[in-house]
Amino acid sequence: MATNNVVIIQCEDEYFESINLAEKIYIRMPGCSVFLICDEFDPSYTEKVMLAGIRKVLQFPIDSITLNENLETAYFLEKSRMENVESGTTTSVQSQMITVFSTKGGIGRTTVAVNLAVALSKKGKKFAIIDADLQFGDVNVFFDLDPKETIAVLTEGKDSSDMDAIRRVMGLHFSGVSIICAPKSPEYAEYITPDMVDAMIDTMRPFYDYIILDTPPVFNDISMVPLRMQTCFYV
Ligand SMILES: Nc1ncnc2c1ncn2[C@@H]1O[C@H](COP(=O)(O)OP(=O)(O)OP(=O)(O)O)[C@@H](O)[C@H]1O
Ligand SMILES: [Mg+2]
Fold this sequence. Notes:
The chain is α/β, with parallel strands linked by helices. The protein has two domains: 5-87, Rossmann fold (3-Layer(aba) Sandwich), CATH 3.40.50; 96-234, 3-Layer(aba) Sandwich (Rossmann fold). It is built from eight helices and nine strands. It has a six-stranded mixed beta sheet with strand order 6-7-5-8-4-9, with helices on both faces. The chain has a three-stranded parallel beta sheet with strand order 1-2-3. The mean pLDDT is 86. Bound molecules: adenosine-5'-triphosphate and magnesium ion. Adenosine-5'-triphosphate is lined by residues 105-111, 133, 217.
């Protein structure tokens, strides 16, 4: 079994040497994530950095909390990648759906959904959480995220069936949980259709061990999507 490590390469202006070293580590040491840390990153090296498999480029000054978050994220992502590779489940994986629902507000649905996602993600499972409380969802608050994009931008064209478009919307918590936040304002909720949520879930399923849906405290077209899938966890 491969061990999981994170290697940090400090680079001043010897980009070539650092990137070559990172590439060797990437090829020869599966399970090892490489970070490059430098004073000022020259963006013309971006493509080389990506090809060498460098997980993240960090720039000085960097505070300990940000460094720690990045290290944890890299560690858990690589750990779950290696577990999938070792168990041979990379192509056949279909995530399980967990929906947290109740008809009463303020009862702890979001707390359960978020804590479940973080706790199991730390055990190496790949988790995504969708905030399907479209009008007043606050999953982002629980993760302390201020999302640039939300589920609302997936309403255009075939975006909800396009994994790259979905990934652009996702926030990533340092625990490894990917998050699709509810719209920032309640009026956007009406543009999100059950078909769109269905398509989005179908598209995401091969990429995650679990997808958790947080829901509003009402039966509506959207909360019925996961309920129809019969994968519900009642609070
Ligand atoms: N087991 C618990 N014990 C005590 N307080 C809790 C517990 N679970 C949740 N809470 C608190 O209850 C409040 C409501 O929790 P939460 O937002 O998770 O509920 P909700 O059902 O998602 O609410 P909403 O209807 O607003 O979506 C929060 O302040 C949360 O910290
Ligand atoms: Mg809630």
